[in-house]
Amino acid sequence: MRHIKFFIAGAVALCTSVSLSAQTLTEEQKIGELVSRMTLSEKIGQMNQLTGTGLSGDMTSAVRSGKVGSILNELDAGTVNALQKIAVEESRLGIPLVFARDVIHGFKTIFPIPLGQAASWDAGIVETGAEIAAREATSVGIRWTFAPMIDISRDPRWGRIAESLGEDTYLTSVLGAAMVRGFQGSEGNDLTAPDRMAACAKHFAGYGASESGKDYNTTWIPRSQLRETYLPPFKAAAEAGAATFMCSFNDINGIPSSGNSWLNVDLLRGEWGYDGMLVSDWGSIEQMIPHGYAADLKDAAEKSANAGVDMDMMGFAYDRHLETLVAEGKVDIAKIDEAVKNVLRLKFRLGLFENPYTVPQGRDAFYRADALAAARKAAAESAVLLKNNGVLPLKTTGKIAVVGPLADSGRDQVGTWCFDAEPEHAVTPLQAILAEYPELEVINTPSLTHSRERNTKRIKAAVKAARNADVILCFVGEEAILSGEARSRADISLPGAQRELIAELKATGRPLVLVVMAGRPLTIESEVKMSDATLFSFHAGTMAGPGLADVLFGKVSPSGKLPVTFPKMVGQVPVYYNHKNTGRPANDITLIDDIPVDAVQTSIGFTSYHLDAGDRPLFPFGYGLSYTTFEYGAPQLSSEAMTADGGITATCTVRNTGGVDASEVVQLYIRDRVASLVRPVRELKGFKKISLKAGESTVVSFDITSADLSFWRADGTFGVEPGEFEVWISTDSDAGVPARFSLSGVK
Ligand code: GLC
Fold it and tell me: Do β-strands 662-672 and 683-692 pair in parallel, antiparallel, or remain unpaired?
């Protein structure tokens, strides 16, 4: 008996010391210890992501045998918990699953598409939207979203520009990081909170450079441009703590991202020291076969595993071939262990080992008052006023005709990439106007049933009715299905018979206000000309109606600024603000159709433009009007000479010279006049959203350091070069006069 007591005492002491040491084990030690106990099959299981099939036999047995690490698109909290119970309580090691979904711009309360959120130039709005999306999505068990999408998009033909934060690297970097903080919590450790979810910086990398804007298309991106334009938003997301990255579908200079060791290992892990988890895109490992980069699925698995892709989303490559590849020595077990550690680290960071289950909250988690208010604010702040002949803001009395295919389409106003939206919960512009402006007599006669409709039979009746109105409010644009993944368009004009509708409404002679709701810039030069005012809204979500009504009736003065250039015609694409100057820069050539042929050679010379479009876009990056006017003083510099280890401060007095209190996004641009690589004519390096009462002025200041002036050189180094620089503080990328300074003391 004495021996047994001794043994028990010893066992208790041992367990206590082990459990105590288990509590003091670091996360990495816990991960390492767990990996050491896993079989190869269990390791490969963690690298496998499947789309949800409820509690199907295949899924439950795969989970039970540890062959699944993550499930996407499972949206029923009960099913999520049931699958999690199998993983945690019935599989050999009890490793929890992580459940994922594309929660791109809202789960149930839908915010403006990311391109619209970018038009607000407001990191706070973006972060709040992501925080609310996380609160709603985690209520059904989603703990990992595939957002932010931070692909720089300079081609409006590309359907996924809708999902991006626009054409500019700096703006995308700032807003992408804000989205990461919103999903994950401002401090990394928030990620264990049950209402937070892991972000995913995607698509890594260069996807927005798809040739001709055709989705999934090849890209050719010189490494200095990859580093200068496409990679910084991903670095910013990593620095903001993004827990995961996702591969892109495209090849970069012939190597698909899912098999790109330089990108995923040398740069992401080696240079950046990133320790998050890299997931493939849907089937992107398997798609290296049609790419012509892998001979078969086994070859694809080998190439991706060796290129540092930790998890295979629905490609079945790892599940079917990794075990053999390890046995054949083609994939080293160390690579597998590295990948599994990255997967387990995500799960530890989410707190899933301690709290694997979801506490279902039912539908009262959705559409809460604060969520709807935030979505309404985002919709208003993302609206961009392109033209106003004084007809806006509208009066709240009298007769108003509300016309057009997007006046009352809850499905279309929420835009693309919102699988879980409920259009019946969207408040449309027509509904908002009827509900909030009862003194108005609203004429609403059907004209076109949807944006692509070509049948003009109902236009006449709609126009006839509109003739009696004091003002015509016409909602046009794109259906939601015309942008998003695999939704590229070669013609980016208004679809269907919308231009005919606008022309007929114009012919009535009544004041005509256009509201354009779309997922991309559109070539709307003639429509804008026909209008007395044009307001552009990138599919603004559940509360698009109230938000736009707030702007149209003057409760909110529009402050949105374009996050992407609007071309006059698609033939100008790619057209973006931070272009190079060329050896023959054109100077604001405005072509008129009737230039006599012999004058063409003499009057506009041999410079870089299109004969039928000139050298300017329809609207430049950063453009957006207000109900007031703002006067910018010339930028003042703290010094005209800056040393590389120092800095200067640029200031500008901005005055609200109109009669309306309003906000304005003040933008800072720089230009490096001469360098070892030709530099863009302007680069956004800062912005501040200010609010000024009518008549009020303020001094806006920006600090400039060498970091703002540095760029990636041909030799692969990042640095600053001495010489002359220009600085603008302006209302958009085409306005303002520069101040100059020189930089010296570069080592
Ligand atoms: C899609 C998209 C990606 C998305 C994934 C899961 O094909 O490219 O952005 O997150 O599959 O739905």
Answer: antiparallel
